[in-house]
Write a structure and sequence with these properties.
Length: 347
């Protein structure tokens, strides 16, 4: 299939229409077999539960082209499992894992010509979405659901690419409460972060670094991504908290770090520990790793690199993970799955 004519090296990280998306519907206690839809609009009741009571969750994944033209999905079963967790958190009906994976394969194959070529630095972003669609006025769960996936080619999340960014510790706004839904990938968590992100950008920072909502002492997430640090004695540390989304990227980086001989710690991380790190970074599907140049906390700023040079540990982790994702490094973990031809995944 001939690729679309795009300037792959200049792609933004944003939505652009492709040939189709895929939809599965839950009604009368069961999911249908799904269908490909050749437009990008939804027909919803004005009283759908997703619009009024926040019954929705979503995922983010990527597909990469290999040097020999194959298409690889990265740890897609983990996205299926995390979406099921998010769905149950807000009392929605999750799509079974096997249907989730099937849906990804079907919609990616149908839009194969939009997969950016190997070496372009771009990828095909995969966005699964689950919403409650029952027309209700009254706070209760929907009985009908729509699961869909659309895909679009994207460039790096941060326009600067793998260049260090500046963070500021946020104390005015909270992202999520400890016993709330911060551990689920639901839209309300991201809406709650918009004020802090705008304030940070207005102040000359790329993003915020949240503290726990209860004590304002321990690190939480960094805007739309998990946070990690590298200690002087070569330990990879990352915050543990009931309000942090479990990042598939962070999970993968911890495995890689351990295999590289680094100590790995997922635990509560006090904010003052930022002053004793030698490297820091944000990690997630969109950015993979974004190194941190400096963090400002109240009247103090800690700087990890004076130039745009990425720290050696972060660089090695980034190169290894992206190499596995695009097939240029052997995947000894079984993290990638090749997207088969249409004849093998349905129509």
């Amino acid at each position: 299939m001939e690729k679309v004519n795009l300037n792959w090296g200049e792609l933004p990280f944003g939505y652009s229409p492709t040939d189709c998306h895929i939809e599965y519907r839950f009604k009368d206690g069961s999911w249908d077999e799904g269908k490909l839809v050749d437009h990008d609009r939804l027909d919803l009741s004005i009283s759908a539960t997703c619009l009024h009571y926040g019954q929705e969750c979503f995922e983010g994944a990527k597909v990469f082209e290999t040097r020999d033209g194959r298409a690889l999905a990265f740890r897609i079963e983990k996205n299926a499992q995390r979406m099921a967790h998010s769905a149950k958190t807000v009392l929605m009906e999750p799509l079974p894992e096997e249907k989730f994976v099937e849906a990804v394969f079907r919609v990616v194959d149908a839009n194969r010509r939009f997969i950016p070529p190997f070496g372009s630095g771009a990828s095909l972003y995969v966005r699964p979405l689950l919403i409650g669609t029952s027309p209700l006025i009254g706070v209760k769960p929907s009985s009908e659901y729509l699961f869909l996936i659309f895909v679009c080619p994207v460039g790096p999340y941060f326009k600067s690419g793998l260049k260090p960014i500046k963070l500021i510790v946020e104390e005015e706004f909270d992202r999520a409460a400890p016993d709330g839904v911060g551990h689920a990938k639901v839209g309300g968590n991201y809406a709650a972060g918009l004020r802090a992100s705008r304030k940070a950008k207005d102040g000359g920072y790329a993003e915020v670094l949240y503290l726990d909502a209860a004590k304002k002492e321990y690190l939480d997430e960094s805007g739309p991504a998990n946070f990690f640090g590298i200690t002087p004695d070569n330990r990879y540390i990352t915050p543990e908290s009931p309000s942090i989304l479990k990042s598939i990227t962070n999970m993968s980086l911890r495995t890689l770090a351990e295999d590289m001989g680094m100590g790995v710690e997922q635990r509560p991380v006090h904010v003052n520990e930022i002053f004793y790190l030698k490297e820091a970074g944000c990690c997630g599907t969109a950015a993979v790793i974004t190194p941190v140049k400096s963090i400002t906390y109240r009247d103090r700023t800690v700087t990890y690199c004076e130039t745009d040079e990425v720290g050696p540990a972060s660089k090695k982790l980034y190169d290894t993970l992206t190499g596995i994702q695009n097939g240029s490094i052997e995947d000894k973990y079984g993290w990638t799955a090749e997207i088969p031809a249409a004849s093998k995944v349905g129509s």
